[in-house]
Amino acid sequence: MKVEVERQVARFIRSLPPEPRHAVREALRTLERESSDIRALEGELSGFYRLRIGRYRVIFYYLLRGNTRVIPCVYANHRHLICEVFAHVFNRLLDK
Predict the structure, then answer these.
(1) What is the pLDDT of residues 43-93, one digit of tens each?
(2) Torsion of CA 91, 10, 60, 86, to 10 degrees
(3) Which sign, positive or negative, has the C-alpha torsion 22, 42, 34, 72?
(4) Is this prediction's pTM over 0.85?
């Protein structure tokens, strides 16, 4: 399994102070083993999952590319913003 980090997620990680940045990077490494705090999202975000890392959340989904299972991480932010903002962005993409 391979974890792919989208541009927004990489920018968010770089914006964090050193300790949280290290924690998020480490959590993304363990995501391949699916041994982290993962929960499926519901409603209009069905099919997406969230990875909890302290005060931060990373939104991802599972994808099969050939014979390889891929985990694209598509959005990351602070806990209180994550679902509201991601749902808004996701709905805008569907409208295009």
Answers:
(1) 778 899 999 999 999 999 999 999 999 999 999 998 877 766 666 766 665
(2) -30
(3) negative
(4) no
